[in-house]
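step=predict obj=Fe-S-cluster-containing hydrogenase components 1 n=339
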Amino acid sequence: MTITRRNFLATAAAGGTAAAAACATLAPSGAQARESHQVPENAVGLLYDATLCIGCKACMSACKEANSLPLEDNIGEKLWDTPLELSGKTYNVIKIYQSGTMENKDKAENGFAHIKRSCLHCADPSCVSACPVSAMQKRPTDGVVTYNKDACIGCRYCVAACPFGVPQFQYDTPTPQIAKCQLCKHRMEQGKYAACAESCPTGATIFGSYKALSEEIERRRAMKPGEPNLFPRRTPDSGDTHEKAAPEYVDYVYGQKDAGGTQVRYLSGVAFDKLALPMGLPERSYAADSETLQHTLYGGMILPVVALAGLVTAAWKGSKDHHDDDDFDMFDHPEGGHK
Ligand code: SF4
Ligand code: SF4
Ligand code: SF4
């Protein structure tokens, strides 16, 4: 029998498939599974309460200034910073939901509501898991998801991996980087905190420890709608509060469990599926799923074993056929091969 390139590869694939089936049977189920990472003990984050947001966009301006980002003109007036979405020049954008007559704030029917879009600083980030050179990292101390432009090779895996559509590639520069909020880590090094929270006049965006923000979230969810309550500005414990009737929140804290949970969380009076945030994400992180699969395939040596088994099968079959037929023509060698 003559061994052609085609039947060698077919034999190798068949051997590999058989080996894969055997490996799958033998692999201890779930032995390599890893659980979603949880937020670190000293995690920090943001709480954005859409019911307090008046759409002034002070947070957007402060973010641009704090991160030395250029203005973005999307309406052609060359006067204002008018980003409509996250972009290579914009880490933070306030968007608006509108319905019918727009008479009612934070109502789905004939109403409107604002929503802040920026990095959610996932507990177990897909961007970090997908980055092949660790340019994206999650700080073990406070859980901030950082980006190192010097390590980045521009593959954009993080862009594809993020379930929230956050990282943006700078297409319009000869030295592109990935653009995303790093929770103002450079300001934290100066003893400050997120510029968006510091600048928000209503306390719609506040910065604090994950634990303090969790307590604030529960406090607000326990409020009786319509009754006057105090809402802190800037941080949960700033002492600078303003009084306002408690809103009627939807029964969902966005970011509490979505895609494994995030350190930026949201409250709203309008369902989140109307607010440009993806709903229906699993509670288990995508990073846990993909790394479990990788570890099962590589850590369990299944892929290498499959490849080796395929090649050994093909080589053995070739050798057997060679001895049987005394006609071994590896890869259709033009001279007729070894005799
Ligand atoms: S600064 Fe505060 S109130 Fe103004 S748009 Fe931003 S989050 Fe809303
Ligand atoms: S929101 Fe996206 S970019 Fe931000 S940490 Fe999560 S996966 Fe990464
Ligand atoms: S934390 Fe800093 S970088 Fe992130 S959205 Fe707020 S101001 Fe912008």
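step=describe
The CA atoms of residues 187 and 193 lie 6 Å apart.
step=end
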